[in-house]
Amino acid sequence: DEKKTPYELIGQRHGIEKLVTSFYALVSKDPVLSPLFPEDLTETAYKQTLFLTQFLGGPPLYTEEFGHPMLRARHMPFPITDVHAERWLSCMERAMTGQKLESHLQEFLLSRLKMTAYHMVNTERSEN
Ligand code: HEM
């Protein structure tokens, strides 16, 4: 049905949790990304599940629990370069591919996440 939200197409809460779990498994093994994250990613994965739910057109679970996302502000404590954004997106793409999402859905999700990821960049890449 063409009126379904991306949230429904991905498989609602269950589909998002699966994606988030495989995404953070990849993040934790990424030598560039992992130093920015806490060792225990349970809370991070929980927040991302709530955020992606509302980002993809599901109920506003993140806002209900944590307030306005203000994602750029919440990422300011972490020095994020374009390299981090690329690697974040690469982990997300591999997580989606592992889940065998329908290719149109995957392209749509990645194009939206790409805008958000580059919006988080707050630090210039050092040349050395
Ligand atoms: C939190 C890194 C992009 C959504 C975080 C945290 C880090 C981080 C280090 C804190 C983890 C914690 O303390 O629990 C990055 C990096 C990115 C990136 C390096 C590369 C561009 C994104 C994108 C989204 C996103 C594109 C949205 C689709 C979130 C959310 C949180 C979070 C919802 C939890 C915020 C909170 O309530 O504290 N991110 N992030 N991030 N990130 Fe990202």
Automatic annotation (TrEMBL):
Record Pfam families: Bac_globin
Source domain of life: Bacteria
UniProt keyword Kinase present: no
Swiss-Prot/TrEMBL cofactor(s): heme
Entry-linked SUPFAM superfamilies: Globin-like
Keywords: Heme, Iron, Metal-binding, Transport
Family per record: Belongs to the truncated hemoglobin family. Group II subfamily.
Name of the featured protein: Hemoglobin
Source species taxonomy: Bacteria, Bacillati, Bacillota, Bacilli, Bacillales
